[in-house]
Amino acid sequence: MCGIVGYVGDKTAVDILLEGLTSLEYRGYDSSGVALNIDGKVELFKAQGKLQNLRNIVQNNYTQISKSTIGIGHIRWATHGVPSIANAHPHTCNCGKVAIVHNGIIENFKELKVKLEAQGCTFRSQTDTETVAHLVASKFAQTHDLTEAVRLATLEIEGAYALAVIHQDVKNTIVATRRNAPLVIGFGEGENFVASDIPALIQYTKKAMYLDDNQIVTLTPNSAKVIDIEKNEIPLKVETLPWEPVALSKMGYKHFMLKEIHEQPDIVRNVLSGKLRTMDEPISLDEVTLDKAKLKDLNRIQIVACGTSLHAAMVGKYIIEDFCGIPVEVEASSEYIYRKTITDENTLVIGVSQSGETADTITAIRLAKKKGSHILIVTNRPDSTMAREADSLVPVNAGIEVSVAATKSYMAQLISFYLLAIYMAEVKGSISKEELMDLKHELIVLPQKIDKILTHKEDIQKIARKFSSFKDFIFVARGINFPTALEGALKLKEISYINATGYSAGELKHGPIAMLDDSMPVLAILMKGKVYEKILSNAEEAKARNARMIALTDSDDQKLDELFENIIRIPEISEILSPALAIVPLQLLAYYIAEFLGKDVDQPRNLAKSVTVE
Ligand code: AGP
Predict the structure, then answer these.
(1) Nearest alpha carbon, ligand 1 atom 16
(2) Is residue 306 within 6 Å of ligand 1 at its C-beta?
(3) 146 lines ligand 1 (CB under 6 A)
(4) Are the CB atoms for 368 and 376 separated by under 8 Å?
(5) 137, 178, 454, 537: which is deepest, by most CB within 10 A?
(6) Backbone angles phi, psi at 526, to 5 degrees
(7) Distance between CA 429 and CA 129 in Å, rounded?
């Protein structure tokens, strides 16, 4: 969580830092700050709350602040200490000459703090980060070399960090380093950048290098030198980034979330492109390196993920088992890592993550890798830590997702799972030619069906308005759409703060039915197929308890008109592919309810897009 950015060059640093922080806001937004060297002195500017508060402070002092051409900035998602000005980064040492920004958690900060206090350091915040500022200052006092001071400090700190440091006495220099937290360097002409993520640099340069764990970079306007923790110089590996700055614009939509929902037909086409070539050709997944003979013999798959990615994984389980007959276990990464996990070299372990930086999932795949499992990563960020540690990769090609609530990346993950399951089924020969043809055809026409739902979004907007004052919401489904119910509920709770829960419809009568009365909307996902009639009966039971009934269906069954107060009708689709269509109205429903309630749709309270702490 948290985003860091640094600039050294000949332009007004604060403008570049604020722009960078704006594009990193998805990583956190409870406080922010910058440290600048103004007329030879390190000065801090910090604000609690949204980034706009920092912008206002900067604006009020702009004449003085704009002189600086070097600085570091931070946007925070609180872990240690409440969101406040004292806890906002940058943090400094006693004399205020060192300024530091940090993303991650310093696990041994308490021990370090005791030692540093004994040496006379005075702590002004409740953060773990402040220890690093004091530690670097004490190492600098011994070495008078900022790079060496940072290197020596990192030898003593445990945990995860991306750090950027400036020192008043070391002109025009930023030192940055990382361990288990992302950090990228951007190279310009007479200027250099460092940031937690590419969006902070992309409008200034496309030349970048991802720093590896324990590497330290020293940046000046005209130089960049990277060393490892043993002081060996590392040659610069400059890449040209494939990103376009336009990806970060709302393109006329009120919120990124609405724009990203609307991008989904194109995302499906993107994901299919180059992988599903013709109906007769097998699916091609170039970055899946698992030996075909080994794939045929696989007797178990485990999938680990968090949040929305976990829901995509649950759909993945259903389709891999259906197409390939291989048993699949799905588990939240945070649970997988703290039990006696049984994994071995005969198990394929799939990690699913939009960001590729979720700490729990990284730990889970590392654990499985140690036990010899082949690691396959399904991610939207082929440049991420997970992708770099993977044996096989399925890049999901959803483009950058800005809204904290995942929508288009979920769609891309689902389509990737269909492709992966078909790919495996083709290798195993576990699915008939006719079935394969039907599936591929349905995937190709899916974007048109999503478009149809988006064209009629006003119908969903009306239902959203009608139900926006309810305090609770239940989503029910069965089979392959049970994860759709969970994802629909997650979308609603994360952006509207309504207490929404997804249940397997068959479980209603085992407890949750006790909550039903006329103050409880129940949205039933009724896609035609094996469980349609069963869900209908479960919906009857809910209606008999006076629940306010809403249907989401691809059926034109007249019976539904009596049972449901509102019906969201979507185009017909095979049951196995229905999660990719049924989720779209639920994303819109959540969006319109939150928008009607005036919530901060793209940046819901207490959340961050990239959860890089366990
Ligand atoms: C989704 O709307 C959430 N913001 C969240 O649940 C997210 O899916 C989760 O944190 C996992 O992130 P990842 O896909 O980047 O690993």
Answers:
(1) 353
(2) yes
(3) no
(4) no
(5) 178
(6) -120, 75
(7) 54
* Residue 129 and residue 42 share a domain: yes
Task: Give the number of other Cβ atoms within 10 Å of residue 498's Cβ.
Answer: 22
Token output for 593: 């309810």
Higher pLDDT, 608 or 388: 388
Does a structural domain hold residue 251?
no
Res 613 pLDDT > 80: no
Same-domain pairing of 239 and 93: yes
Res 606: pLDDT: 84
Non-local (6+) Cβ contacts of 24 within 8 A are 3, 4, 5, 75, 195, 196, 197, 199, 200
Domain containing residue 474: CATH number: 3.40.50.10490
Same domain, yes or no: 288 and 405: yes
Whether 379 lines ligand 1, by a CB cut-off of 6 Å, is: no
Q: Residue 406 Cα, ligand 1 centroid: separation in angstroms? A: 7
Helices (H), 219-263: 256-262
The finding on whether 406 has its CB within 6 A of some atom of ligand 1 is yes
Which atom in ligand 1 lies closest to the alpha carbon of residue 305? 16
Count of the separate structural domains present in the chain: 3
**Residue 10 covered by a domain:** yes
Ligand 1 atom nearest residue 611's Cα? 10
Q: Pick the closest to residue 72 from 189, 150, 156 (CA basis).
A: 150
Same domain membership, residue 185 and residue 56: yes
Same domain, 324 and 277: yes
CA–CA distance, 415 with 397 (Å, rounded to integer): 10
Q: Say whether pLDDT at 345 is over 80.
A: yes
- How far is it, in rounded angstroms, from Cα 521 to Cα 487? 17
Cβ count within 10 A of residue 192: 26
Q: Does residue 612's CB lie within 6 angstroms of at least one atom of ligand 1? A: no
The rounded Å distance from CA 143 to ligand 1 centre is 43
Is 378 close to ligand 1, i.e. is its CB under 6 Å away? no
Residue 587 Cβ inside 6 Å of ligand 1? The answer reads: no
| Residue ending a domain, choose from 418, 434, 454 | 454
C-alpha atoms less than 13 angstroms from C-alpha of 60 in its C-beta half-sphere? 8
Nearest CA to ligand 1 atom 9: 307
Q: Is the CB of 380 under 6 A from ligand 1?
A: no
Predicted confidence at residue 397, as pLDDT, reads: 86
Confidence class for position 335, pLDDT limits 50, 70, 90: very high
Mean pLDDT (the chain, rounded): 94
User: Per-residue pLDDT for 174 more than 90?
Assistant: yes
Which residue minimizes the CA distance to atom 7 of ligand 1?
307
Domain boundary among 180, 215, 245: 245
Q: Which atom of ligand 1 is nearest to the CA of 490?
A: 2
Residue 67 covered by a domain: yes
In order, the DSSP letters of 478-541 are: -GGGHHHHHHHHHHHHHHH--EEEEEEGGGGGGTGGGG-STT-EEEEEE-SSTTHHHHHHHHHH
pLDDT in tens, 44-87: 999 999 899 999 999 999 999 999 999 999 999 888 888 899 99
- Note the pLDDT tens digit of each residue in 545-585: 999 999 999 999 988 999 999 999 999 999 999 999 999 99
Nearest protein Cα to ligand 1, atom 4? 405
Residue 383 confidence class, pLDDT cut points 50, 70, 90: confident
Catalytic residues: 2, 609
What is the position in ligand 1's atom list of the atom closest to the CA of 358?
16
CB 361 within 8 A of CB 304: yes
Q: For strands 3-8 and 70-76, give the pairing.
A: antiparallel
